[in-house]
């Protein structure tokens, strides 16, 4: 696991890179991935002074859990989780070795299971799948703070 911040002499923390990465190989590592997200966001708030709402803390852990679970379930070998603060949000990226894009199913309240990506897309501000020379990367962004008016930030369905 690595954590980094931007170079010296920069004026604004927003311009600094604040990120952490971890590799996960086993199903039991899903809990470790959630713990990494929780610890990272606690540091973002305590060390770097950025606001992190309770909603953001919960949503990031949920998204990490869903994406790492899918990577462990559908791709051989380890997956890589990267969390990066950028522009008032935390980008959650999971790389795995399977180049096949995930099947994104239409919402169906009668379906049992397979709602993970549906949830990720509902709570995130963005959602991208990018093929890599080996495997793919799935990225979503979660706002660190809720809207001052009380509305949660994120994409509306």
What is the first-to-last residue Cα distance? Answer: 34 Å
Q: Helix content range of the residues, please?
A: 25-40%
What profile does the largest beta sheet have? 6 strands, antiparallel
Q: How many helices does DSSP assign?
A: 3
Q: What's the Cα radius of gyration?
A: 16 Å
Unreliable stretches covering 5 or more consecutive residues:
1-14, 149-157
Shape: globular
Helix-strand pattern, N to C?
EEHHEEHEE
Look at the structure and give the mean pLDDT. Answer: 84
Structural class: alpha+beta
What amount of the residues lies in strands?
25-35%
Topology, number of strands? 6
Strand order of the largest sheet: 1-2-3-4-6-5
3D architecture notes:
The chain is α+β, with helices and mostly antiparallel strands and 157 residues long. The protein is built from three helices and six strands. It has helices at residues 29-46, 54-74, 116-123, and strands at residues 2-4, 18-24, 79-86, 89-96, 126-131, 136-143. A six-stranded antiparallel beta sheet has the order 1-2-3-4-6-5, with helices on one face.
What key attributes describe this structure?
157 residues, alpha+beta, six-stranded antiparallel sheet, 3 helices, 25% strand, globular, disordered N terminus, disordered C terminus
């Amino acid at each position: 696991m690595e954590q980094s911040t931007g170079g010296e002499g920069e004026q604004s923390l927003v311009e600094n890179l604040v990120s952490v990465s971890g590799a996960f190989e086993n199903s039991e590592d899903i809990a470790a991935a959630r713990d990494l997200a929780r610890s990272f966001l606690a540091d973002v708030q305590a060390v770097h002074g950025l606001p992190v709402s309770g909603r953001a803390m919960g949503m990031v852990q949920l998204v990490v859990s869903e994406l790492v679970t899918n990577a462990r379930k559908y791709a051989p070998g380890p997956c890589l989780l990267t969390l990066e603060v950028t522009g008032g949000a935390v980008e959650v990226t999971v790389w795995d070795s399977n180049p096949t894009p995930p099947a994104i199913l239409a919402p169906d309240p009668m379906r049992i299971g397979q709602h993970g990506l549906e949830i990720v897309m509902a709570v995130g501000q963005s959602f991208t799948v990018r093929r890599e020379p080996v495997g793919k990367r799935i990225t979503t962004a979660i706002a660190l703070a809720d809207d001052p008016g009380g509305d949660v930030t994120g994409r509306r369905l």
